[in-house]
Write a structure and sequence with these properties.
12 helices, seven-stranded parallel sheet, Rossmann fold, about 35% helix, five-stranded parallel sheet, about 325 residues, alpha/beta, 2 domains
Amino acid sequence: MSENILLTGTVLPDSDVERRLVEAAGATLEIVDVSSTEDLIESAADPIGIMTIETEIDESVMEAFPNLEFISVHGIGVDMVDVEAATDRGIPVFNTPEYCVEEVATHTLSLILACERRICQYDTGVESGEWDYTLEAPITRLSTKTVGVVGLGAIGREVVRRIEGFGVDVVGYDPYVSAEDMRREGVEKVGFETLCERSDVVTVHTPLTESTSHLLDASAFESMGSGVTLVNAARGGIVDHDALYDALRDGTVAYAGLDVLESEPPEDRRLVELDNVVVTPHAAWYSEDALTELQRTAGENVAGFLDGEVPEYVVNRSVVE
C-alpha cells in the first residue's frame, strides 16, 4: 500500500500538478476540504505528510498523526504551522518562498500609487458624475517622500528596487539584515520607531511571528507624523486593525492600501468601508505564472523528500541536517 499524503483545502483550481509529482514518487494524495484543525483530525486517516494552504497545523495535529514525517506549506509564510512543535518532533516544514516575489512587489507598488495618487477615489468620483481634480487635493510628488520598508527579505528588497525609480528616499527596519546589506540596496537601516517617525509611506513585508504580531499598534501610529500612507501585503495580523481604524479617522494615516486583513474575509467591515482605504482580497500573490510555480514547487518539495532528498526549501533545516 502506498503512503498517504493529505492536501488540505480546495482554494486552488485543481491539484493535478501536486498529484502527479506525489504519485510519481510512490505515494497517494488525498484532498481533504477542511477549515479547522479539528475537522482535519476527524476527517483524515493517519498520513505521513500534510500539504496545507490555509489550515492551521498545530501540536494537536502532530499528536493525532504519530506517523507524520513532514509538513508542506503552499506559500511563503508558515505562521499557520507550529514550527517549534514540528522541530521538537523532528518534522521538517517546507515552504515555497520564491513563487510570488515579483507579483507581491508589483501589487505593493500598485497600492502605494493608488493611495498616493487617489486613483480609486477619483474613479469613484467620475462614476458618480464628478469631474474635478481638486476633490482629492492636496497631492504632492512621490519623489518628495520617504518610504519606510518593514522587512527586507526577498519581497521587501524587490519593492525597494521598484520604488527607488520614483526618486524617493528609503529607510528600512529589519533586525535580521545588516546595515551594510541594506546600504547595498540603497536603504538606510533604522530602528522601528525611527522608521515610523520619518516615513511618509510605510510598507510592510515582514513575516507574522510572535514578535511582529501587532507590530504596527497604537504606539507605532502615535509616533508617526500626520498624513502617512500605510500599505500591507504581508499578513493582516502585523497591523492592529483597531489602532489603524483610529489612525485613519484622526488623519495620522491618510490612506491605507491593504491586501491582507486580520480576519479574511472581514467580519468587521468598519475598516474596509472607509473612503480612504483600498482593499484587495489577498490577491497580491496571484498571477497564473505564480500559481503554476507555487504548485510545482510544493509538489517538488514533497516528491524530493519521498525520494530521500533534502528539499531546497526547508524552514527548520536543522532537522534534516
